[in-house]
Design goal:
This protein is about 40% helix and about 10% strand. By secondary structure, the chain is of the alpha/beta class.
Length: about 230
């Protein structure tokens, strides 16, 4: 971990600057990958979260090894990181962008708040989100899901892909319906053209049988004329 410590004056300056301005300043210095996508505040706070990052990375757990008893060990990486994160720092957790990953709960976040940590960020999810939202510490995570929501985790990613497939199927049906409508219109237009052509042919035949000048003389037919 770096020995640099953010001064109070620099912290106050950063608290009055938006994230967009900081991203632009970093972009000018060649830093393009500057932020974590799709993380949102659990509950809005009055001031910006500012602090140096203290990082923790989660990896996929093996169900045969990662039992509940593993968390009782004080040297467990999650518990150790909570106790080692310095005051004024921001705890940043890499959960592989999986909202089903419980990066922390209300007990660990409360511990970080008591220890003076400036905030908590994860690209995964939080347990006890309502309780965490009431704590006086900034925290960012992927949106929490409810079991009755159509995109609720687990399986949210699979359901999103299902929704995309349904949209593609609907778009295909619309295209086929439009193609059928255009075909019907084209066939109706051809039928109209054929009727006009027959009518014009009949008129030409009548003119040909008329006077030498080509005009058609209409005269009433008597009852005995065929």
């Amino acid at each position: 971990m770096t020995t640099y410590v953010l001064s109070d004056e620099t912290r106050r300056k950063f608290e009055g600057v938006s994230c967009a301005t900081l991203c632009t300043a970093l972009f000018k210095r060649g830093l393009r990958n500057q932020f974590i996508q799709d993380v949102r505040p659990v509950a809005p706070k009055a001031k910006n979260m500012v602090g140096q990052a203290f990082t923790l990375r989660y990896i996929p757990a093996r169900e045969d090894l990662n039992q509940l008893s593993a968390f009782q060990n004080p040297e467990h990486p999650q518990r150790a990181a909570v106790e080692k994160c310095p005051p004024g720092f921001v705890m940043v957790m890499d959960s592989r962008k999986d909202p089903r990953a419980a990066s922390a709960g209300s007990i660990l976040v409360s511990r970080l708040m008591v220890r003076g940590v400036a905030g908590v960020v994860t690209d995964g999810g939080f347990r006890d989100s309502p309780e965490i939202g009431e704590l006086d510490i900034p925290r960012l995570s992927q949106p929490s899901f409810r079991a009755d929501e159509p995109d609720a985790a687990p399986g949210a990613r699979h359901q999103r892909s299902d929704r995309l497939r349904r949209r593609r199927r609907l778009a295909g049906r619309r295209r086929r319906r439009g193609s059928r409508r255009r075909g019907r219109r084209a066939r109706a237009s051809c039928r109209r053209d054929r009727r006009r052509s027959r009518r014009d042919d009949g008129l030409r035949r009548l003119r040909h049988r008329g006077s030498p000048e080509g005009t058609l003389h209409h005269r009433p037919l008597s009852r005995h004329q065929g």
